[in-house]
Amino acid sequence: MLDKLLPLGSVVELADGIYTIIGFVPTMQAEDGTYLMNEYIGCKYLEGYKVDKDLRGFSREEIKNVYFIGYKNREIIQYLEVLDYFLNSIDSYGSIDEAIEKVANKYLKGNKSKTIEILEKSLEQTFGKESEEKANE
pLDDT at position 1, please? Predict the structure, then answer.
């Protein structure tokens, strides 16, 4: 199991093929209406994203092999650290609200609105602005 999140653009092998990480998503809704805990969203390597069914949510536990690690700089490393802490806090506390509070206290001097802004930025980068607006409705 990987101990840290991989950056965007990383290429990984899963049980059903090779995927490029194109975003981070704490949860994804399954077809049966339940929510699954995922960390990444990816699309098949070399095929890319054409329609929503090309996307696959997955967690670091599902990664069998890492073929390429995407671009990292200081800002990305810090962002991945905060996001990783958030995801681990959801696992530990079982509540997104508690996880936001933990991240705010650890990294942002208790500033919950800044924490939410960072997480919304992640969703916007993954799904685009329209999806974020739909999620807020």
Answer: 59
Helix (H) or strand (E) holding 75: helix 74-93
CA distance 132 to 84: 21
What's the burial of 113, exposed, middle or buried (CB within 10 Å: 0-12/13-18/19+)? exposed
* Per-residue pLDDT tens digits for 11-24: 999 999 999 999 88
Quote the CA–CA distance of 136 and 88 in Å, as a whole number: 24
- CB distance 58 to 5 below 8 Å: no
Q: Are residues 63 and 99 in the same domain?
A: no
Q: Write out the H or E segment, with its range, that includes residue 101.
A: helix 96-107
Q: What is the pLDDT of residues 31-60, one digit of tens each?
A: 676 666 678 889 999 888 888 788 888 988
Q: Domain check: are 37 and 56 in the same one? A: yes
Domain extent at residue 22: 11-68
Q: Whole-prediction pTM value?
A: 0.70
Final residue in a domain of this structure, among 68, 84, 108 = 68
